[in-house]
């Protein structure tokens, strides 16, 4: 008679706790989209009320992005040192308070300061929320669920536009105050939902707190499971934050940061300035506005399709195809800048659809390629560096359109996509079907052993 082999935690079925945790962890992308977008809805009213100069307007808009750059890396280090649970709640307390504080600002300096702090809180929530979620999810669903969080950013942005427009119509001259402070509501709701979330069992094990880790595992998975069912219960060595910058992990930091940045620069530029770009290319009036809506819908559709493909196609192939076909769409826009309006719109929609693969992997690869002890720091660093790309894409596009013209601007965007494709071609590993421990292990030759085996199987 064969002996029954108990299922590993990574092979355990998805349960209600995993689904709830995915909802709770979506606070980061939702509030990211909401807080970054609501400022654009009411910027004109803010500028009039606070008598902002053009430079101050730019600082108000950019302060949250700069805050995310700081908060991502700092938050990642803190969550690796102190645990996921503590900051998981505290960051939403700060988000709620800073959002509410915007209601009473009376100067540009006060608003810039609060937006900077809001950005830091959002940036900190990205690595801790996705790290906590990744460390609980079964390997079969980990990629698709982490990937689906990217779509929540667009939901947050859409909510901001709807709420902002309603407030502008009913709240009078102080509408901008109510609109900015409205982020308090979703932050408070997510905070309430997160209360009672347990600490990561993997993090507890890494800190030697085995009894606590065992209790969490039994609570989440059932009494028949224990710490013995954690794939990484036997640690080869500990990795320090300093090791993120050299050896095999340095290469992984470079890969994650480069592909994320190459994906996000054209994406943010096109998303933020779609109406202006479309007008420059021949779509005027309502067609430009409708075109911007169509592009946004294609971004969402692309993410949905990529979530469905991430397991059957694999991470590496999905990333390569995403950069290849979205880059081709940008090249066609550069070659035919004066083509028919509908053809131009079709090219833009094709770009938005195909870049979905790279977008959804922005949450997957960083969490799969680094071990528990530095996962938060690695995700935080990648988040921080991606915000540099967001700022570049958002704030240099007007200058590029003015000085280089639309065709050359699209050639630059195509070039960025080519860089992303080349980086992916030479550096992207395949982590499909691996448990979280194996996908993060570095072998002596600085290559993930399981990835090499998987690659050979795919060939």
TrEMBL record:
It is found in: Endomembrane system. Gene3D superfamilies: MFS general substrate transporter like domains. The chain crosses the membrane at residues 21-46, 58-79, 86-105, 111-133, 145-163, 175-195, 253-274, 286-306, 318-336, 342-365, 377-397, 409-428. Keywords: Membrane, Transmembrane, Transmembrane helix, Transport. InterPro entries: MFS_dom, MFS_sugar_transport-like, MFS_trans_sf, Sugar_transporter_CS. Residues 21-432 form the Major facilitator superfamily (MFS) profile domain. Its main location: membrane. It comes from the Bacteria. It is a multi-pass membrane protein. Belongs to the major facilitator superfamily. Sugar transporter (TC 2.A.1.1) family. This is MFS transporter.
């Amino acid at each position: 008679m064969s002996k029954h082999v108990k299922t590993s935690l990574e092979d355990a079925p998805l349960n209600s706790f995993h689904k709830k945790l995915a909802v709770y962890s979506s606070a980061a992308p939702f509030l990211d989209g909401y807080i970054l977008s609501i400022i654009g809805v009411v910027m004109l009213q803010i500028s009039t009320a606070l008598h902002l100069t053009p430079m101050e307007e730019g600082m108000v808009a950019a302060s949250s992005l700069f805050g995310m750059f700081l908060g991502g890396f700092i938050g990642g280090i803190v969550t690796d040192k102190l645990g996921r649970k503590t900051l998981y709640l505290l960051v939403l307390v700060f988000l709620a308070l800073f959002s509410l504080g915007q209601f009473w600002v009376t100067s540009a300096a006060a608003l810039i300061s609060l937006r900077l702090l809001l950005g830091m809180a959002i940036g900190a929530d990205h690595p801790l929320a996705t790290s906590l979620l990744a460390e609980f999810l079964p390997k079969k669903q980990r990629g698709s669920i982490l990937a689906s969080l990217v779509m929540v950013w667009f939901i947050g942005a859409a909510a901001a536009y709807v709420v902002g427009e309603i407030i502008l119509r009913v709240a009078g001259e102080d509408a901008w105050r109510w609109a900015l402070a409205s982020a308090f509501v979703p932050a408070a709701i997510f905070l309430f939902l997160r209360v009672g979330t347990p600490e990561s069992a993997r993090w507890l094990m890494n800190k030697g707190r085995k009894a606590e880790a065992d209790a969490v595992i039994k609570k989440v998975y059932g009494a028949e499971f224990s710490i013995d069912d954690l794939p990484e219960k036997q640690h080869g060595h500990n990795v320090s934050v300093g090791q993120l910058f050299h050896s095999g992990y340095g290469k992984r930091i470079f890969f994650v940061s480069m592909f994320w940045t190459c994906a996000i620069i054209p994406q943010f530029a096109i998303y933020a300035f779609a109406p202006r770009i479309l007008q420059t290319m021949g779509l005027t009036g309502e067609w430009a506005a409708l075109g911007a809506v169509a592009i946004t819908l294609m971004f969402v559709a692309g993410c949905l399709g990529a979530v469905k493909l991430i397991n059957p196609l694999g991470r590496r192939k999905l990333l390569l195809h995403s950069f290849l076909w979205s880059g081709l769409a940008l090249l066609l826009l550069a070659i035919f800048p004066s083509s028919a309006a509908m053809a131009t719109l079709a090219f833009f929609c094709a770009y938005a659809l195909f870049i979905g693969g790279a977008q959804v992997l922005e949450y997957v690869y960083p969490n799969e390629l680094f071990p528990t002890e530095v996962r938060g720091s690695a995700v935080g660093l990648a988040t921080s560096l991606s915000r540099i790309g967001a700022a570049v894409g958002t704030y240099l596009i007007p200058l590029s359109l003015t000085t280089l013209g639309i065709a050359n601007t699209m050639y630059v965007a195509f070039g960025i996509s080519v860089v992303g494709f080349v980086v992916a071609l030479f550096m992207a590993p395949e982590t499909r079907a691996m448990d979280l421990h194996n996908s993060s292990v570095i072998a002596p030759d600085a290559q993930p052993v399981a990835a090499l085996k998987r690659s050979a199987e795919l060939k």
